[in-house]
Amino acid sequence: MNNSKMICIANKIKYLGNSGFVKLVDCMPRVIPNSSAKLMCDHAIVQAARVSLNDGIKTYEKDTKLIDFLVKHKHTSPFEMVKFKFHIKCPIFVQRQWIRHRTANVNEISGRYAVLNPEFYIPEKIYDQGKMNKQMSGNEIADKNTKELFDNYIRNSVKQYSMYKSLVEKGVSREIARIGLPLNMYTEFYWCIDLHNLLNFIKLRSAYNAQSEIKDYSDSMKELITDLCPETIKSFDKYN
Q1: What is the pTM of this model?
Q2: Which one of 30, 112, 174, 205 is the catalytic residue?
Q3: Element at 13 (helix H, strand E)
Q4: pLDDT tens profile 200-213
Q5: Residues paired with residue 185 on neighbouring β-strands, in sequence order
Q6: Which of 30, 61, 191, 240 has the smallest number of CB atoms closer than 10 Å to its CB?
Q7: Which part of the chain is CATH 3.30.1360.170?
Q8: Nearest partner of 181 among 195, 168, 164, judged by Cα
Q9: What is the DSSP string of 217-228?
Q10: 85-95 tens-digit pLDDT
Q11: Could you confirm whether 205 is annotated as catalytic?
Q12: Assigned architecture for domain 4-103+186-239
């Protein structure tokens, strides 16, 4: 008799920016006991938390209260029992912020092996420098001359890529030819992370003062895992 079900994560994808996306391609646990159907992946957190008491799943009400207690009091290790693997396509400047979170496994497309594609992120609006925070943007810039200057600046991305392709075609090695490519080009990578560290990422990158481009990715990942860890996300929202 089958007392469990397999999680299906097909079509869990969010499209972002001009060409970007974040896909949820795998998770652990994939098998959910029928008795924990409402908890979904959260059941692994409950199991890990109660193992010290030689105990396990109880009732839905008691299990959800336990998860809430763990989040509230920052008992984080049980949340490391849940893991997610994402396939991400984002601008290089976003990935450079992303890689600062070193508690994950990462594998990125390599410009040493592959000729990179001519895909560029182009923001719809530009902003001035924030006054209250040195690393933030401030108000939208409406000045026509400044916007025209920015448009010319962005058009250089295409010119730079054209020169890159010409250098590769003339025999310059890919690892050397790539070094002048702009940061608004798209890159792709796989990113594997446990739930505890993913929540830390979301707490920082979905914050009000995060750069809007990486915030879009962070918000999307949270959305993609919400139905897989419903009680954890509910408590996370409550206390964060």
Answers
A1: 0.93
A2: 205
A3: strand 13-16
A4: 999 999 999 899 99
A5: 120
A6: 61
A7: 4-103+186-239
A8: 164
A9: HHHHHHHHHHTT
A10: 999 999 999 99
A11: yes
A12: 2-Layer Sandwich (3.30)
